[in-house]
Amino acid sequence: MNDRLASIKQEILEGIEKSATSRATAFELRKQFLDSKTGKIGQLMKEMKSIAPEERAAFGKGVNELKEWAQQRFADLDEKMKARELQRRYEAEKIDVTMPASKIETGNLHPITQMKNQLIDVFAGMGFEVFEGTEIENDYYNFTALNTPQDHPARDMQDTFYLSPEFLLRTQTSAGQIHVMEEKKPPIKILSPGKVFRSDDDATHSPMFHQMEGLVVDKKITLCDLKGLLDMFVKKIFGEGTTTRLRPSYFPFTEPSVEVDVSCFECGGKGCKLCKGTGWIEILGAGIVNKNVLENCGIDSDEYSGLAFGIGIERVAMLKYGINNIKLLFESDLRVLNQIDDNE
Ligand code: DAH
Q: Are 186 and 217 contacting, i.e. CB atoms less than 8 angstroms apart?
């Protein structure tokens, strides 16, 4: 009897030595001996009946001692396996805090949005409010009310996408002027940024581009106010040393109309490739609001006068960021976009 107990003990020791590699295998091994129904020690208990009565007490004591001994062994084994598994996890999940961090890519605003925001900031600082019109307009707001009736030759200045005889994709944010003047009494000081559309496509033109309209209507607004405002604007966008010059031009909705040049911020006016040797770069159209336009909106043109300007946002962005093809602004090439981040 003692031999059997000793051999089971030996089996347990060998099993622990050889096959216990994890908590799971240790558990399986424990079952082989200590499972109450199928375990080898449990089986011994069942044999009690067949043991001679005089030996029964000694047998029972021996089996119990073996059971307690085995329970202790397996409890120790489980602890050991638990510690080993924890150690393995520590090793596997070890973090080297001295490793250089992987770079997290962050996005930035599109150059056109950056430019638009900068322009809004500059003019908001002078008290302008933003009015965003709609991209689909009717003929009246885009042309007629802006002193450009149906058969006016100035309509040829812009190749229009018509959606129907009445509706079109707005060709200019100037349409916003009319909506604002219809809704508000002077004094008026608004900016109207947004997309505009024209059938035009080359290195400096795209069928869809962005403009920002400015309109001021109040008593005694003159060309001097316009000049002062634009000087302030170019200094903020292109640098303190820049100034503007006004050249006579023609737009149906302004009288007089001017083409505005900025002194070349690349060469300081000496003449370079950017300004084509002239020292000046054309940046926008502007003027004193035509009396007809004020009257079309019910504003008394004897009492009030206005100034207006229309900035091409891509044009300013291309000049400022040194971009020579407008398509680069619409191709979403990250190599280009990553280089333009004024918000850094
Ligand atoms: N709407 C003109 C264009 O698209 C730009 C413009 C010129 C706007 C003169 C104005 C202005 O407000 O006064 O070409």
A: yes
- Ligand 1 center–CA 329 separation, angstroms: 22
In angstroms, the CA 100 to CA 93 distance is 17
Q: Is 308 in the pocket of ligand 1 (CB under 6 A)?
A: yes
Identify the pLDDT of residue 343.
Answer: 65
134 and 227 co-located in one domain:
yes
Separation CA 294–CA 304 (nearest Å): 8
Span of 31-45, 135-149, 169-183, 284-298 with lowest mean pLDDT: 31-45
Pair (317, 252) in one structural domain: yes
What is the Cα–Cα distance from 288 to 309, expressed in whole angstroms? 9
How far from 184 is each of 121, 176, 179, 216, 226, CA to CA, in Å? 22, 12, 9, 12, 21
DSSP code of 102? P
Instruction: Please state the separation of Cα 22 from the chain's center in Å.
Output: 49
Distances (CA, A) of 85 to 24, 25, 287: 11, 12, 81
Q: Is the pTM of this model over 0.85?
A: no
* Amino acid of residue 18: K
- In this structure, the answer to whether residues 117 and 51 fall within a common structural domain is no
Q: What is the whole-number distance in angstroms between the Cα of residue 174 and the centre of ligand 1?
A: 6
Per-residue pLDDT band at 45 (split at 50, 70, 90): confident
In a domain, 105, yes or no: no
| In a shared domain, residues 194 and 85 | no
CB of 174 closer than 6 angstroms to any ligand 1 atom:
yes
Residue 62 shares a structural domain with residue 143: no
Rg (CA), the chain: 43
Structure tokens given for 83: 């510690």
**Are 151 and 158 within 8 A, CB to CB?**
no
CATH number, domain of 210, equals 3.30.930.10
12-26 pLDDT tens trace:
888 888 877 888 888
